[in-house]
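Chain A, query sequence.
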Amino acid sequence: MDGCSVHRIFFRIVLPMTSSVISTTAIINMIYNWNEFIFVNTFISTDSYKTLTVGVQNFIGQYTTDWGAIGATLMISILPILIAFLILSNRIVEGIAAGSVKG
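Chain A, predicted structure.
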Protein backbone atom coordinates (compact mmCIF):
# COMPACT_ATOMS: atom_id res chain seq x y z
CA MET A 1 0.00 0.00 0.00
CA ASP A 2 2.90 2.29 -0.75
CA GLY A 3 1.80 5.76 -1.69
CA CYS A 4 -1.74 5.45 -0.34
CA SER A 5 -3.21 8.29 1.65
CA VAL A 6 -4.69 7.76 5.08
CA HIS A 7 -8.21 8.05 3.66
CA ARG A 8 -7.61 5.44 0.96
CA ILE A 9 -6.14 2.99 3.49
CA PHE A 10 -9.18 3.51 5.69
CA PHE A 11 -11.74 3.02 2.93
CA ARG A 12 -9.93 0.12 1.17
CA ILE A 13 -8.62 -1.87 4.16
CA VAL A 14 -10.00 -0.87 7.53
CA LEU A 15 -13.65 -0.24 6.63
CA PRO A 16 -14.21 -3.55 4.75
CA MET A 17 -12.63 -5.48 7.62
CA THR A 18 -14.85 -3.85 10.22
CA SER A 19 -18.10 -3.60 8.24
CA SER A 20 -19.71 -6.59 9.98
CA VAL A 21 -18.86 -5.23 13.42
CA ILE A 22 -20.14 -1.76 12.52
CA SER A 23 -23.41 -3.16 11.14
CA THR A 24 -23.92 -5.36 14.22
CA THR A 25 -23.38 -2.39 16.50
CA ALA A 26 -25.78 -0.27 14.46
CA ILE A 27 -28.50 -2.94 14.52
CA ILE A 28 -28.23 -3.57 18.26
CA ASN A 29 -28.21 0.19 18.93
CA MET A 30 -31.27 0.66 16.70
CA ILE A 31 -33.16 -2.07 18.58
CA TYR A 32 -32.19 -0.55 21.92
CA ASN A 33 -33.35 2.92 20.88
CA TRP A 34 -36.55 1.58 19.32
CA ASN A 35 -37.54 -0.07 22.59
CA GLU A 36 -36.62 2.88 24.83
CA PHE A 37 -39.65 3.62 26.99
CA ILE A 38 -38.62 5.18 30.29
CA PHE A 39 -36.48 7.97 28.80
CA VAL A 40 -39.08 9.03 26.23
CA ASN A 41 -41.96 8.80 28.66
CA THR A 42 -40.13 10.83 31.29
CA PHE A 43 -38.39 13.59 29.36
CA ILE A 44 -40.40 14.16 26.17
CA SER A 45 -43.75 15.89 26.55
CA THR A 46 -44.64 16.64 22.90
CA ASP A 47 -46.67 13.84 21.31
CA SER A 48 -45.06 14.31 17.90
CA TYR A 49 -41.61 13.42 19.31
CA LYS A 50 -42.68 10.31 21.24
CA THR A 51 -41.87 6.86 19.91
CA LEU A 52 -44.45 4.34 18.77
CA THR A 53 -43.95 2.13 21.81
CA VAL A 54 -44.78 5.04 24.13
CA GLY A 55 -47.85 5.80 22.02
CA VAL A 56 -49.26 2.41 23.01
CA GLN A 57 -49.66 3.81 26.50
CA ASN A 58 -52.31 6.23 25.16
CA PHE A 59 -54.64 3.27 24.52
CA ILE A 60 -54.67 2.38 28.21
CA GLY A 61 -57.17 4.36 30.25
CA GLN A 62 -58.14 4.34 33.88
CA TYR A 63 -61.29 2.27 33.31
CA THR A 64 -60.93 0.82 29.80
CA THR A 65 -58.22 -0.59 27.59
CA ASP A 66 -58.47 -0.77 23.80
CA TRP A 67 -56.82 -4.15 23.22
CA GLY A 68 -57.49 -4.15 19.47
CA ALA A 69 -55.64 -0.88 18.95
CA ILE A 70 -52.80 -2.04 21.22
CA GLY A 71 -52.41 -5.27 19.24
CA ALA A 72 -52.43 -3.47 15.90
CA THR A 73 -49.92 -0.87 17.09
CA LEU A 74 -47.57 -3.51 18.46
CA MET A 75 -47.67 -5.46 15.19
CA ILE A 76 -46.82 -2.29 13.27
CA SER A 77 -44.05 -1.40 15.71
CA ILE A 78 -42.43 -4.82 15.44
CA LEU A 79 -42.26 -4.85 11.62
CA PRO A 80 -39.24 -2.53 11.06
CA ILE A 81 -37.08 -4.42 13.56
CA LEU A 82 -38.15 -7.78 12.15
CA ILE A 83 -37.42 -6.71 8.56
CA ALA A 84 -34.02 -5.28 9.55
CA PHE A 85 -33.15 -8.49 11.37
CA LEU A 86 -34.21 -10.73 8.49
CA ILE A 87 -32.25 -8.72 5.93
CA LEU A 88 -29.13 -8.29 8.08
CA SER A 89 -29.11 -11.53 10.12
CA ASN A 90 -25.95 -12.79 8.40
CA ARG A 91 -24.14 -9.56 9.31
CA ILE A 92 -25.27 -9.88 12.93
CA VAL A 93 -23.85 -13.40 13.18
CA GLU A 94 -20.60 -12.34 11.45
CA GLY A 95 -20.17 -9.39 13.78
CA ILE A 96 -20.79 -11.41 16.91
CA ALA A 97 -18.49 -14.23 15.74
CA ALA A 98 -15.75 -11.82 14.61
CA GLY A 99 -14.91 -10.88 18.16
CA SER A 100 -15.02 -14.42 19.54
CA VAL A 101 -13.06 -16.47 16.99
CA LYS A 102 -9.33 -16.03 16.58
CA GLY A 103 -7.93 -16.29 13.06
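Residues 59 and 69 are 7 Å apart (CA to CA). The first helix runs from residue 6 to 34.
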